[in-house]
Amino acid sequence: xxxxxxxxxxxxxxxQALCGGTELPTGQYQHIIHCVACETLATQIGDALxxxxxxxxxxxxxxxxxxxxxxxLN
Length: 74
Fold this sequence. Notes:
By secondary structure, the chain is an all-alpha fold. It is built from three helices and no strands.
């Protein structure tokens, strides 16, 4: 059995990926799916993005088209 060090995806890289700005390598994507801490962070970031989008809509600031939520990791 070999020792494996868990390498979490950095919060900034995760935020960028969830915003569509960067593509995660397959290994990092799989880590997020299987790591409770990273999956929780991804969910929290998604919720924050939804809140930002809702605030922009409330104030009629630069939102056009449908929600980007479907493109996020889930």
